[in-house]
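Researcher: First entry.
Model:
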Amino acid sequence: MPVRPARCYRRIKGPPYTRLKYIHGAPYVQIPKFDMGNTSQAGRQAFTMTARLIVEARGQIRAQALEAARQMAYKYLSTTITDANYYFRLEVYPHHVIRENKMLAMAGADRLQEGMRLNFGSPAGRAARVEAGQTLMYLEFKPEHLPHIKEALRRAASKLPLPTRIIVRPKDGDKTPSS
């Protein structure tokens, strides 16, 4: 069954559904890496600038969209400025389990299913719930790579269902991301 479009899940409805102890069949998070590029503390000392991709509206972002955005940014950065020249971190984690009431869509399906009766749904995916102003992606880099960093974040933002903006600052006035 194909994945439903992002518009079906981008609004936050109800409390978060995150207790995996009680959710049987919850899908695994398929984001392999959250820290990329030059991850050593000694290597990160040379970076003097930071960039953040910040979400402008409250909502949910599916794990598939986060992974697509991560891959776009990482592939562009690793081919243009190489991994030694930046530190890249995905700041959000998809904790929320998305439920889907699967319906048959063929002739005679009305006799085979109950429709909206007891429609709690079965686990179908994961999503990260984000608030307006929350950081999605964090980068540290040298000032000469600024155009490539902006382009990578622009490409990543094109894969997300919510509006975003890019903020670039010197590293001195910025606190490091919490681990």
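Researcher: Second entry.
Model:
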Amino acid sequence: MKKTLMVAALSGVFATAAHAQSSVTLYGLIDAGLTYTNNQGGQHNFKMTSGSVNGSRWGLRGAEDLGGGLKAIFTLENGFSIANGTLGQGGREFGRQAFVGLSSTQYGAVTLGRQYDSVVDYLGPLALTGTQYGGTQFAHPFDNDNLDNSFRINNSVKYQSANYAGFKFGAQYGFSNQAAGFSNNRAYSVGASYNYGPLNVAAAYLQLNNSVTGAGAAAALSNSGGAVAGDNTFVAGLQRTFGAGLNYAFGPATVGFVFTQTKLENASGISGGAISATNGVGIGNYARFNNYELNGRYALTPALSLAGEFTYTDARLDGVKPKFEQVGLQTAYSLSKRTDVYLQGEYVHASDLGGTGLGAPITGVGMSSTPNQVSATVGIRHRF
């Protein structure tokens, strides 16, 4: 009888230990607000918005300890609109992230699935559009550099290193998944960051290869099952984005600067963000966007923060040289560790638009019919 009780007790201990080695976490963020825009396609608008700062999402994150510092990991993350309950990211069930892989405390992690690119991973945290201090509506015009994560990379294999005394690096490759076109709609990216006390620096590069069919603004990606499909920002045969940035903390204050450049070849239109490639707006065979962002944030108290950014964008579109000046301000107050309320506003002025048909764009709001646009949002965020 004593042996039976001992075996039962030991079995319970081992079962508890085995259970403790694996974990699955349900998490999420809900961002809802009311937004006023003075000119959206020629009309003022007052509407409910979802994700004005951070996209609403819920997800499952899991890990299994395999021993020796090695873990099996996975993430499944869904994006949705809190305003109407619909799926985000083109109706995908787990459109924000969906990957599985192995992680080592010594060597880093290798994951496979739908994932963020290296520009988002390494440079995004230094720009206000990539953080909780500005988010979606602080994105650079049309989110041309993807710092706001407008698209993810499908069919991708990603490596992210461990943290080596503040230095981290990574690389990613997204397969075209097309038997007769290995490079048709593939993507790859690399990035690195370094943290030393109050100083953070980062740099990253992203390239998208897309074979394009059709002509003019009616062109579309010819491989819809490739690395970037359905949520791509531009319709172009080739996109190259690179950038670098830094920020420095002075007690409760942080200031930073980010530069990015996006170049497009065989370009025919803007398919995401403010306008569609089918509405007659062409951007020419070659296009370029240079973005210069100066940003800062300050914690007035542990609960109250202020943040602001100024971005100057110098573009080249089919021989025209438009320029965009963008100012964004935000204040947020934490009601608890998981809930805060915020007020933020944006102003964009566009100039030298020529015959492009463009106006002033604010990401997540739309594009104005004039060279100026103003938007303001009051909202609430809850994390779980």
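Model: Note on the second entry: Residues 72 and 102 are 5 Å apart (CA to CA).
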